[in-house]
Amino acid sequence: MAPESGNAIEKAASAWVARMASGNVSIADRGDLQVWLDADPRRRGAYVRAQAMWRMLDVVASNSRLDEDDPQSNITRLAVSRPPADGIAAYVSRRGLIAGGGALAASLALALAIPSMNKPKPQSFVTASGQIKQFSLSDGSHILLDRASRVDVAMLSDERQVNLLHGEGWFEVAKDKARPFIVQSGDMRVRAVGTAFSVSRGDDMQLIVTEGVVELSFTTMPKPLRLHRGESATIDRHGQLRLAVLTEDAIRRRLAWREGSIGLDGETLGEAAARFNRYNHMQVVINDEQLSREQVVGWFSVTDPQGFAEAAGAMLNAHVVRQNGAIHLSR
Predict the structure, then answer these.
(1) Which of these, 70, 83, 168, 305, has the minimum number of CB atoms within 10 Å of its CB?
(2) Is the dihedral of CA 35, 39, 45, 46 positive or negative?
(3) What is the mean pLDDT of residues 200-223?
């Protein structure tokens, strides 16, 4: 007796998948399937492929949103029905599709790719070290990026997606209730309609709301949290959440980078030096550990580390020396 052909196995496998999905399967049917699978090792592979094709057809049926009424469309819809209750007979067309093999697989791959083909590619906005720049979006929203920052933006039909990859951005969102404005920063997700807020991504992630209301989600939070104007949320590297209410002056200092400034009000000298060092090639070095813990106040240009160092030296009675391409402070 000649061995069963591969084509025959594929057709039989498609028939078994249709039969198992019909909803009218007995224990005896399952036993017969097992006997059929055990009789030839090629049958298991064919059965798995038929199951995968069946699931792909389900995806196409449930997810396809092509516009059938569009006279410009030259894409043919693939209509697939869910299993009816009256048995296997209604499965013939789908089973035939599964048994069609490679040509159908290629067609399905195209059908599944159509949403991705229609989805616009994200647009990247980037700032260099020391650069602060504003970008305008097609919906009327604005993004102001701090130095060395990057966001990827995708303007979709149902939402506006922004992914903050690194750095910090301030977002002034145009109102559009039909398309929420979503900023993703790692595992933190901020949802807004028409408002303004900043999001930073470094060792910690921080959100500051400067106008309106936003909805904050995070992987460790059981449900979204609403934050209003003047409120902030900080999530540290361990996933711990800290909430705070900020004064207008505190917000202005925290977001002073938007004006090209650094506002200090009780930060340690070490913290202040680190902030200047983010913007400048000329680094500020604190040579005394105790000195680095002293607090400083003031309003400085981000591009003037020398002026900051001299002011800090006068405040703290410290020596300021410019040496080897750096500014050193010591007692």
Answers:
(1) 70
(2) negative
(3) 91
Per-residue pLDDT tens digits for 263-294? 998 899 999 999 999 888 999 999 999 999 99
CA separation for the pair 244, 242 (Å, rounded): 7
- Residues 9-32: tens digit of each pLDDT: 888 888 888 777 766 667 777 778
Cα distance from N-terminal residue to C-terminal residue, the chain? 98
Distance of alpha carbon 131 from alpha carbon 308, whole angstroms: 19
Backbone angles phi, psi at 224, to 5 degrees: -60, 150
Question: Can you say whether the dihedral through the CA atoms of 225, 240, 218, 138 is positive or negative?
Answer: positive
Does the predicted TM-score (pTM) go above 0.85? no
Does residue 328 contact residue 283 with C-beta atoms inside 8 Å? no
d(CA 14, CA 39) in angstroms, rounded, equals 17
Contact 51, 68 (CB under 8 A): no
To the nearest 10°, the Cα dihedral for 88, 90, 95, 96?
140
Cβ neighbours, 10 Å, residue 5: 9
Q: Please answer whether residues 31 and 120 qualify as being in contact, where contact means their C-beta atoms are separated by less than 8 angstroms.
A: no
| Residue 310 to residues 20, 63, 136, 300, 322, Cα–Cα distance (Å) | 80, 63, 38, 11, 11
Quick one: CA torsion of 288, 291, 293, 298, rounded to 10 degrees? -130
**HSE, side-chain direction, 13 A CA sphere, residue 68:** 5
Report, as an integer, the average pLDDT of 47-76. 54
Q: What is the pLDDT of residues 72-107, one digit of tens each?
A: 333 333 333 334 434 444 444 555 555 555 445 545
